[in-house]
Specification:
This protein folds into three domains: about 5-120, Orthogonal Bundle (Butyryl-Coa Dehydrogenase, subunit A, domain 1); about 120-230, Butyryl-CoA Dehydrogenase, subunit A, domain 2 (Beta Barrel), CATH 2.40.110.10; about 235-375, Butyryl-CoA Dehydrogenase, subunit A, domain 3. Helices cover about 50% and strands about 15% of the residues. It contains eleven helices and ten strands. A four-stranded mixed β-sheet has the order 1-4-5-8. Strands 2-3-7-6 form a four-stranded antiparallel β-sheet, with no helix packed on it. A two-stranded antiparallel sheet has the order 9-10. Helix 9 runs antiparallel to helix 10 (about 350-360) and helix 9 (about 315-335) packs antiparallel against helix 11. The radius of gyration is 21 Å and the shape is globular. Bound molecules: flavin-adenine dinucleotide (FAD). The site of flavin-adenine dinucleotide has 20 residues, from strand 1, strand 3 and helix 11.
Length: about 375
């Protein structure tokens, strides 16, 4: 068993760290305060080839493995979890399904500009009445000649207000149960597509979130992704990939919390000595560092399985569950280590704590991960 990352993976890690320190870290507080989309950063990520990492070169990607992509998300999220998530949704939830299930024509037309970073992708599955219970969705798609006509409202669509291409889901045959849902590629300029209200959030504030409304939205029949009825399978496949991305995002958050906690605890003097000299503070930091190691092993193992072409659903859920809960637990401790100063706007751990919370909710809540894992180990 070899636990060592390859030279290329280490190089990508240090390149992304350098990128994040130069372009993201200096504006992270401002992005959080203003909830502004970091267009210039995404542009720079595109120019550097980061927006299409794990896709074939022939479709505009960089041909890296998935583990390498996860390491890049980790390092980007260490500076700004919102920017890390923008890249992760684009890659794991929008490009990946087109890469895996798309036709040659769809890959040329949609995957290539997305992988080059000329376009931004989004994933629209959740509806007001259908979150964890995906099957409660009501959006429909009816074939009318050479077009599908979509009707329904999606919510919590990340990248929604700024995306060029959406991967979405609708019933083509509700009576067929889970096998009646289909997946579609929708361009932002499709007639009948409207970006609904923007959703302001507790954390990852620079990630743009909105409703997406399909009102007799007409798309070419050729934009069906996979076959009619394969939508649920495609959605679950997206989540397998996406959960590795969220686990990596959580690792970036924990690493940042650890960095801040070590540095602050060594320089904050109380009772004539640094607070790091107190065993209570040391143990919080030790637990943080230990869980961080465990998070990396779980996540890199899931990414490695994916890259070996082996099943990785259970491992991706385990990584997402463990890392997101660790991120929440340890960012709360990081604030505690900072005392009152950790509660102040503009101090990094305050943002990290708010950003960490969402990792336990999206791409399947912790409860949903436990359902997936139970389904795998108790069958
Ligand atoms: C910031 C943000 C970004 C998002 N981005 C996207 C996106 O890009 N695309 C997209 O499609 N969706 C997105 N989502 C939606 C997200 O995936 C859902 O919020 C999530 O799946 C939970 O659904 P819900 O919010 O409707 O909660 P609900 O499903 O209503 O769940 C509420 C609570 O009940 C629990 N619960 C529900 N059912 C069960 C059960 N059977 N057993 C035990 N507990 C249960 C849940 O775990 C949760 O704690 C995003 C959400 C947020 C907040």
């Amino acid at each position: 068993m070899d636990f060592k990352l390859t030279e290329e993976q280490e190089l990508i890690r240090s390149n992304m760290r350098e990128f994040a320190l130069k372009y993201v870290e200096p504006i992270a507080v401002e992005l959080d305060e203003t909830a502004r989309y970091p267009k210039e950063v995404i542009q720079k990520l595109s120019e550097g080839g980061w927006m299409g990492m794990p896709f074939p070169v022939e479709y505009g990607g960089q041909g890296t493995d998935y583990l390498t992509y996860a390491i890049a998300i980790e390092e980007l999220s260490r500076s700004c979890a919102a920017t890390g998530f923008t890249m992760s949704v684009h890659t794991s939830l929008a490009l990946m399904p087109i890469s895996i299930f798309g036709t040659e024509e769809q890959k040329k037309k949609y995957l290539t500009p997305l992988a080059k970073g000329e376009h931004l992708g989004a994933f629209a599955l959740t509806e007001p009445g259908a979150g964890t219970d995906v099957g409660a969705a009501t959006t429909t798609a009816v074939l009318d000649g050479d077009e599908y006509v979509l009707n329904g409202t999606k919510t919590f669509c990340s990248n929604g207000p700024v995306a060029d291409t959406f991967v979405t889901f609708a019933w083509t045959d509700k009576s067929a149960g889970p096998k009646g849902m289909s997946s579609f590629i929708v361009s932002k300029d499709a007639p009948g597509l409207k970006i609904g209200s923007h959703i302001m959030k507790m954390g990852i504030r620079a990630s743009q979130t909105s409703e997406i409304i399909f009102n007799n939205c007409r798309i070419p029949k050729a934009n069906l992704l996979g076959s009619e009825g394969s939508g649920m399978k495609i959605a679950m496949n997206c989540f397998d990939h996406g959960r590795i991305g969220i686990a990596a995002q959580s690792i970036g958050i924990i690493q940042a919390a650890l960095d801040e906690s070590i540095s602050y605890s060594k320089q904050r003097i109380q009772f004539s000595k640094p607070i790091s000299k107190n065993q209570a503070v040391q143990w919080w930091i030790v637990d943080m560092a230990t869980d961080l190691n465990a998070c990396r092993f779980l996540t890199y193992n899931a990414g490695w399985l994916k890259d070996q072409g082996q099943p990785f659903t259970k491992e991706a859920s385990m990584a997402k569950l463990f890392c997101s809960e660790a991120a929440m637990k340890h960012t709360v401790k990081a604030v505690q280590i900072h005392g009152g100063y950790g509660y102040v706007k503009g101090v990094k751990v305050e943002r990290l704590m708010r950003d960490a919370k969402i990792t336990e909710i999206y791409e399947g809540s912790s409860e949903a991960q436990r359902m997936v894992i139970a389904g795998n180990i108790l069958r």
